[in-house]
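Study this chain:
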Amino acid sequence: MARILVAEDDDNVREFVYRALELKGHEIIKAEDGGLAAEIMEEENGNFDLLLSDIKMPVMDGIGLALSVGAQFPDVTILLMTGFADQRERAHGLDALIYDVIAKPFTLADLLQKVDDALELKPVEIVSRVRQEIASKHKIISNT
């Protein structure tokens, strides 16, 4: 399984993500903010498969963290999370650096699927289109 660094300042969200990914068999290291996550990443010499980070955090936000990690450890896949539309827009300029942004609130299934997709480096556009097709077929079936 994967080694994942989770950077999230909200205790409840951090624990939810930690428990979900740990139950899936991943090794998880937690950080309460981007500054601490950057220190952990450096101490571990980038030895992570995935960085899963909130965008809006104190000390160092997820954008700054992504820029730092991307520059130092380009092999680490970066997945961001946010509940704020304006923060999601800030991340779009980082398309070459990050895998994707997952919108909060998210379900357990959404989180696990997005992490799996990121770890497998599935193209985001293809994954989104497939999910849209499945959702539209499900709506058609349930409406009949």
